[in-house]
Amino acid sequence: MIDKAQNASTFVSEVDSAFLFIFGVALFFLFAITAVLIYYIIRYRQSKNPKATHIEGSTKLEIIWTVVPTILVLVMFSYGWSGWKSQTEIPDDAMPVKAIARMWSFAFEYENGLVTDTLIVPKGRAVKLDLVAQDVIHSMYIPAFRVKQDMVPGKKSNIWFESERIGTYEIFCAEYCGLRHSYMMSGVKVIEGAKFDKWMEENKSIEEANKGTNKRLAGVSVLRKYGCNACHTIDGSKLVGPSYKGVLGSTRTVITDGKEREVFGDEAYIRRSIYEPNADVVKGYDQGLMLSYKDQVTEEELQHLIEYFKSLSE
Amino acid sequence: MENNNESHIVPYKTYGIILSVLIVLTLISVAVTRIELASLTVFVAILLAAVKSSFVLIYFMHLKFDNKLLKALVAAVFILIALVMVVTFLDYNYR
Amino acid sequence: MNQTMTLSHDLHRDDEASKIGMWLFIFTELLLFAGLFIVYGVYRYLNPVAFHLAAEELSVTVGTYNTIILLVSSATMAMASTAIRLKNKGMTLLLLGITLFIAFMFMVNKFFEWKGKFGHGIFPGSDDLLRLGHGDTLFFGLYFFMTGLHALHIIVGFVLITIVAVRVNNNTLTADNPVLLDNSGLYWHLVDLIWIFLFPLFYLIT
Amino acid sequence: MSNQETETTHVSFRDVKSKYKGIFAWIFSTDHKRVGLLYLYSIVSFFVVGVLLGAAMKLELMSPGKTIMDPQAYNAIFTLHGVIMIFLVVVPGLPAVFGNFFLPIMIGAKDVAFPKLNLLSWWVYVVGALVALSALFAGGGPPDTGWTFYAPYSFKTNTNMLPAVLGAFILGFSSILTGINFIVTIHRLRAPGMSWFRLPLFPWTLYGTAWIQILATPIVGITLLMIVGERLFNIGFFDPALGGDPILYQHLFWIYSHPAVYIMILPAMGVISEIIPTFANKSIFGYKAIVISTLAIAFVGYFVWGHHMFTSGMSGTALYTFSFLTFLVAIPSAIKVFNWVGTLHKASIQLEAPFFWAASFLFVFMIGGLSGLALGALATNVHLHDTAFVVAHFHFIVFGGVGFAFMGAIHYWFPKMWGRMYNTRVATTGWIFFFIGFNTLYLPMFFLGIDGMPRRYYDYVERFHGPNIVSTIGSWVMIAGIIIILVNLIRGAKYGPITTNKNPWGGKTLEWEVDSPPTLENFEEIPVIDRSPYDYR
Ligand code: HEA
Ligand code: HEA
Ligand code: CUA
Ligand SMILES: [Cu+2]
């Protein structure tokens, strides 16, 4: 079940009390009106009440049942408004994290340049997410925190939250974004503030993050960082794009400018596939689904990837 | 149902006058937008267009001689369009 | 009792109904263009400078000229309604003829205007346009889309008025049943009405 | 002229001789009743297709992971399901079928104002439908954007967007033509003595609907045309890479599509306002209040479109204005519900299938509408937007509202339309299955949504499994219900006992005074009206 804990984020209690009020009123009217309806049907059925009484209407009643719902909905409106307002008032000291969405994965970039595929945040500190979409509209949805915001390409937007409870919570992409929309998820991991600071310290920058680990693991972390696994597998099975398995050292048929040709999978091919993904598209796959990673994947990361792919082709 | 197509035969002359007014207004709007009035230009140009279109509606399109209902409907449609624009701009204006 | 009848004949001819029907259709056309005016408004608001500069690419002279002739055609079309009621067939045909001629001239002007733009490499999706920047792309995108749609209406109006002229000529459209002429007139004025707004938005506000 | 029909007194419109033979006597007929039935048959056919697609989705969602199809198929199916259900079924639905058939009769006219235009609108509908469905077969595969065609995904996808979008554009014209026809008909062809406040409520709602049809549909028309332009010429209206604003697309889309939901529901409310007094044998409670609330919904409904975009990143001002207006538009619906229930007070109720449909309409409509309130409030919408909760909301109110009203209407007017009767006991059994299946199918989706399951999800995490199973089982119960109902109606139309009574339910509106089925021109003599339409004294 969804984490119903009130302090998963500071918004939860306010939003949930709006829910409680609205659902309370709604259920009351639903049950009351249904009860009256059933009572009338039983009480005034033809066999019981053969002659109807002529009534045209009643102005007094009309006024009552216009005014009462009006008041109730105005209260609902203000509950909804105030609950939402606190979500827009971002504290100045909130820790900024850039959240990037592309088909079909999320990535999170911290101030120090560190990039991860799950969001890791400290408990009890406000976090501000700067939302960026690279291709189509996605939506950042963290049910346990009661926050959601569309990520629109070409448009800046942000959300913030503060969690007071250690745990891992789901992130879903809530705006339909194509083939693997339902697999576009991630998580928020809330950890102790001290632990968080330590973690930041240990992973000062990407280069350092990748240093020290063995080559294979470095390749895996690059794939995760850019969310490549959303579309490619390592076991030879077909997803949106071709699998990494056997990509190095094999000959494949690609479509270049609408014409078929054969290419050999070498390092140059890998580089081209990442920097100009739509130049050669392997036969049987759709063009235009992958964006260029030219300004993102560094030369060093590319080397890690190639090492890793080598290991997959062995 | 009454066929009131005989009722108002608008003389040619009326159309002639309206046409000249429209042409003059067109020339004015061209002239006005030539001088720099900054943001006022937009306003003036649209205002003149609105005046011109009212002439077209009222005389060329006969609204002057039509029943009240139709007049009200036409006005309502323009108000609707204006309201839709205003509401859309509640978003863009305050982003 | 076995009588043969035609449904639409039996329903008593109702000119007022046809007129209301035409007006309702005009409402939908107005809303159609309103959608585009909203788009124009928003993008103008978001790209004020680019729209300002891009508009200077368009020739005010051609625009003014087209506006004026379209106004004249609207007047002649309205006069045709008078002429038919005065049972002046020759005059009606003459006025319709002028309207058609002007519609044709308008299209000729548009053609050369567009051709000129195309010659400068400005057309939807062209490389030059993409190089100019977002505001210009949008401005000219809207320019072609809106004036194009307007031109389409001119063509429809042209066809409609031609039909009217033919029927006036065969005496199947006379002072007794001028509704088709009146309604074509209403349509033609609508086309004019839209142009009255397109003209300042694209040519004047620079 | 084109359509010579021979009329003898008291010959049903179905048996009237025409110069065309067989099916051509129908598809070239300008008789409003035949056009209505043409619409009925085409709409029901598309409905069955849509329903089968819905059932397929439910099967897929029965368990996590792949059940019967892959993600591309699922995405295409919910798109087609949405497009078919919205543009081909519920938007034309009640006005085109029952509006065409009964509007002229209820106001005491021989036909609609423009019979030829009426036939044309059916043809346009068919052409639009065929164009839209051709997306299935042309290369590239069926579109996979959802019925909302959101930019920029709708230009990025390699699937057949153009036919779907063009189809929807053409269908818009069909809707506009119907709207124009109805407004003029109501203005010009009311029988002598039928003042505005003697107009029955179904025509009133059609009147409100018709205005929305002609004033809102063009906006989606132009928007879809812009998508076509964008895809063909790369103009960049809504493509952020070229400076366009995807949010503007959403504005334009919902400027139409929100009013469209009232195009769907208003005639449904009209049908309910007819059924309830007839079966209560009693004048409707608060006739004027219902009329005014109809017009209020039509008008205010035009300005609430932004509630579909609360999380899109609109300005705060826009957000609370839209939220506020959304709540305002709920009030007229509440007024109607109270008046319908009020009508039953001290009534004498005939318990027959049409009444069961009307009463259960009230129940499901309330659930749908009241869940809309949680969507209309900002804070709660943020959590619920684009989740299964929204899916539950609109199935309850669209399918629950319009679908139940449609079923009610067809059971109510059946003896008038076919001159025969269905088996009433079977009809009630069908209703019971349908009602239980319906609630089992959609209620769990509310819980899924509150728990955070996004919509348009082909696959889901394990904790959403339970409610999804229940929901799928519900769809089977509903299958049973729909089959019972359809079989019963089809048998009734063919072999049911011929009704001799013109007015089997004791209705007071004009359609109960004409023959069953009506003759070609409905009335031998146009009636003169001197009373309110629900005068049961
Ligand atoms: C027939 C169609 C129909 C109707 C009538 C409605 C009616 C309403 N709708 Fe619904 N709606 C849809 C069809 C419809 N909707 C569809 C198709 C979508 C999804 C589109 C998509 O994204 O694909 C949608 C989505 C939708 C959203 C966007 C959700 C999201 O994506 O985030 C919202 C938000 O405000 C909303 C609100 C409402 C409200 C407040 C009403 C109100 O008009 C309801 C009024 C009714 C009542 C209130 C109940 C009766 C009254 C009482 C029982 C008395 C007691 C009442 C009070 C105390 C107030 N709807
Ligand atoms: C009128 C509108 C309407 C109707 C009636 C329905 C009916 C149904 N819909 Fe509907 N639905 C929409 C409109 C409608 N839907 C819209 C607009 C969307 C949004 C699309 C989008 O996101 O873009 C949607 C989305 C949607 C989804 C969400 C997809 C997602 O977000 O992942 C689901 C999921 O279960 C669903 C299921 C169903 C089911 C099970 C039915 C059931 O009613 C079907 C149940 C009926 C049966 C199972 C009976 C089977 C019948 C027969 C076998 C016939 C027998 C025939 C003869 C004897 C002749 N629909
Ligand atoms: Cu990304 Cu859905
Ligand atoms: Cu809505």
Structure in words:
The complex is a heterotetramer of chains A (314), B (95), C (206) and D (537). By secondary structure, chain B is an all-alpha fold. Chain B is 74% helix and 0% strand. Chain B has 3 helices and no strands. Chain B has helices at 12-34, 39-60, 68-92. In chain B, α1 runs antiparallel to α2 (39-60). The longest helix of chain B is centred in the last third of the chain and has 25 residues, at 68-92. Chain C has one domain: Four Helix Bundle (Hemerythrin (Met), subunit A) (Up-down Bundle). Chain C is built from 8 helices and 1 strand. Chain C has helices spanning 7-10, 15-46, 48-55, 60-85, 89-119, 127-132, 134-169, 179-204; one strand spanning 3-6. Chain D has 537 residues and is mainly alpha-helical. Chain D has a single domain (28-513), classed as Cytochrome c oxidase-like, subunit I domain (Cytochrome C Oxidase, Chain A). Chain D contains 16 helices and 2 strands. A two-stranded antiparallel sheet of chain D has the order 1-2. Chain D is globular, with a radius of gyration of 23 Å. The termini of chain D are far apart. Chains in contact: A-D, B-C, B-D, C-D. Chains A and D meet through α1, α2, β7 and β9 of A and α3, α9, α10, α11 and α12 of D. The complex binds heme-A (2 copies), dinuclear copper ion (CUA) and copper (II) ion. One heme-A sits between chains D (148, 261, 264-265, 307-308, 326, 329-330, 333-334, 337, 366, 369-370, 372-373, 375-376, 381, 385-386, 390, 393-394, 397-398, 401-402) and A (25, 29, 33, 69, 72-73).
CATH topology of chain D: Cytochrome C Oxidase, Chain A
Number of helices of chain A: 7
Distance between the termini of chain D: 46 Å
What is the 3D form of chain D? globular
* Cα distance spanning the termini of chain A: 43 Å
- In CATH terms, the superfamily of chain D is Cytochrome c oxidase-like, subunit I domain
**Poorly predicted regions of chain A:** none
* Helix content bin of chain A: 25-40%
Shape of chain A, please?
Answer: elongated
Order of helices and strands of chain A: HHEEEEEEEEEEHHHEEHEH
Rg of chain D (CA only): 23 Å
Please outline the helices and strands.
The complex is a heterotetramer of chains A (314), B (95), C (206) and D (537).
Chain B: H1 12-34, H2 39-60, H3 68-92
Chain C: E1 3-6, H1 7-10, H2 15-46, H3 48-55, H4 60-85, H5 89-119, H6 127-132, H7 134-169, H8 179-204
Chain D: E1 4-7, E2 17-18, H1 24-27, H2 32-60, H3 71-90, H4 93-106, H5 115-134, H6 153-156, H7 161-188, H8 201-233, H9 246-280, H10 287-300, H11 316-343, H12 353-376, H13 378-384, H14 388-418, H15 424-450, H16 465-495
Antiparallel strand pairs in D: 1-2
The complex binds heme-A (2 copies), dinuclear copper ion and copper (II) ion (CU).
